[in-house]
Amino acid sequence: MNVTLRAPEPAAVAADRPAASRRLWAQRNFVLFWVGQTVSKVGNGAYSVALGWTVYRLTSSTAAMGLILALNFAPQVVFSVAGGTLADRWSRRSVIIAADCTAALAIGALAALAAARHLSLGLLMAAAVVLGTVSAFYSPAYAAMNRELLEEKEFRKANSVFTASGSLARLAGPLLAAGVFSVGGPALVFALNAASFAIAAIAMVATKIRARPSTRTKDGLRTELAEGLRYTYSEPWLILIIVLSLAVNILCLAPYSVLLPALVQQAHSGVGTLGLVSASEIAALLLASLVIGLLRGIRAGTGLIALGSAMGLGATVLGTLGDQPGMLFLGAILFGVGLSFDVIENTLLQNRVPEHLLSRVYSVNMTLSYSLQPLGYFFAGLLARHSSASAVLTVGGFTMLTACGIAVLLPTTRRLDSVRC
Predict the structure, then answer these.
(1) Residue 8 has pLDDT above 70, yes or no
(2) CATH number for the 222-417 domain, one of 1.20.120, 1.10.260, 1.20.1070, 1.20.1250?
(3) Fold of 11-210
(4) What is the torsional sign of CA 272, 274, 279, 284?
(5) What was the pLDDT predicted at 61?
(6) Distance CA 232, CA 225 (A)
(7) Is 420 helix (H, G, I), strand (E, B) or coil?
(8) Each residue of 178-229: pLDDT tens digit?
(9) Is 91 left (phi over 0), alpha (psi -120 to 50) or beta?
(10) String of b and e for 208-217 (b: at least 16 CB within 10 Å)?
């Protein structure tokens, strides 16, 4: 059952929306939104590389980079639900424009400070907090934009395109940073990222969206936030998605992210192999996302569990056979395929959650799914030090496969299979 609450479209916006039969890429507003956000993702990929190198040059400490990542992640967890509530209450388009402009100003200031040779760890930490806070408000609004740009039957294809282009950005951004950093140092890379956010904001200003009825009421933000929480906890299919996501993040993704370099060393390989293994994961994610977008009528429950199982199998392969170079690539490819989980998840949310609750539900889902991931990073490293990287991945992968096997038998999964997304 698809739950949609939509008001009649104003004539001007309806006339601007292409007929449903037209191809996704022929829709001007979708293309504008996609181009702006993809440019921004490439800029973010470049920024991440330049930031890591700059922090290490300033401090010679890997712990400093960990602190910056934590400072960036914490506001996203703390403010995400509030960000989702505001995105449902106000214009999501305006929230995205404000977020992109704020990020452009923050990173532009870093670029100016870098050019003047006034960068410090404290300034980079402050920027991390600002950008994390911006992301907490941006992400829930971004996740719901398909509802204001496209017809329901186009959501899955659009989500596959966004996931695939995000994968390409993960490849293109670091390559761009490598070339630009050698020419202009961190100042030029930061300036390019600021420009990418400005381009995203301009594209969003030029994008026309469907008008939606105002949901602002006399109720306070706390009441509206509680409404989003109640809806999430009342829907068994949402609980299933959150539990699967939480299990994947703790049991598979956190150990994989922390322990992959150790596995490469165990296989008597070097940093070149690590780069190729990571690239194979990204390529698998890109291809799997595009394939999911092209398929017709995916069984939602089975699809989610199959992709979760792919990551469990990938962790098991890496844990048991990771000392063989070929198995490193197979494990990474399975992880890449599993990461396309997001395409089905986002499509389900966009199709089934009432529009006036969509950003709130997304933010609750994201907060609960990722809230324990930092602990996953910590315990993966700690357990590997007392046992081995292989043991941690094997246990995590086997546990994930067992959880997926149990989930297949649940009535909620069977009901979700009746939904074709």
Answers:
(1) no
(2) 1.20.1250
(3) Growth Hormone; Chain: A; (1.20.1250)
(4) positive
(5) 66
(6) 11
(7) strand
(8) 788 888 888 999 999 999 999 999 999 999 887 665 555 556 667 777 888 8
(9) beta
(10) ebbebeeeee
